[in-house]
Write a structure and sequence with these properties.
By secondary structure, the protein is an alpha/beta fold. About 40% of the residues lie in helices and about 15% in strands. It contains 9 helices and 7 strands. It has helices spanning about 20-25, 35-45, 60-70, 85-100, 120-125, 135-145, 160-165, 170-175, 195-205; strands at about 50, 80-85, 110, 130-135, 155-160, 185-190, 210. Strands 3-4-2-5-6-1-7 form a 7-stranded parallel beta sheet, sandwiched between helices. Helix 3 (about 60-70) packs across helix 4 (about 85-100) and helix 6 packs across helix 8.
Amino acid sequence: MDPMSTPILNFAELGLSSPLLANLKKIGYQSPSPIQAKSIPYLLKGQDLVGQAQTGTGKTAAFALPLLSRLNFEQREPSILVLTPTRELAIQVAKAFQVYGSSLKKLKALPVYGGASMREQIQQLKKGVDIVVGTPGRLMDHLRRGTLQLDKIKALVLDEADEMLRMGFLEDVQWILDHTPNNRQTALFSATMPQAIRNIAQKHLKNPKEITIKKESLTSSQIKQSYCFAKRRK
């Protein structure tokens, strides 16, 4: 039976670990968004996934929660790698991992991006981190320097993949993917699915589950709208 054949009313129904459910309750999360409800069960099973949903629909929790719930963080090298198009999103996603996993012992999520101190990032990586969230350019810098090891990555996420394409990071993304283990779990999230993004999914994901959340109307039926014409002031 398809796990999504009936509506999901709360996070407890999704199979997340007890510590994560307790954290979600503390921060006030109640019902999962559509992309969360549909993605989490498959990612918990270790399946690859392609999710299409607009920005602001809760995609970060859709991949962060199941990955935190199913992976053991007992190694110095990163277990999860997330690629993002901008430094702002890298910081936001790393912070979300840290908040969702606050009850997990010594969990460390590190954002890496250009314009910040390379030395400080290297120091943090040497201490050991569980999750690396970064922009393609800075991730490539670390890989070339040998300051970031990806050979023990268990899960990889491409977040806002169409934005990375628009910003010209496509070749960089493919280069980074080629430096990760073949047996990793991979999730790709994007607001749109141009052919170049589909090509990445076909090449780097294994029989992914495809989930599409239709764009909702930006206008609420509860809002009454009106307008009037005004003469242009001379």
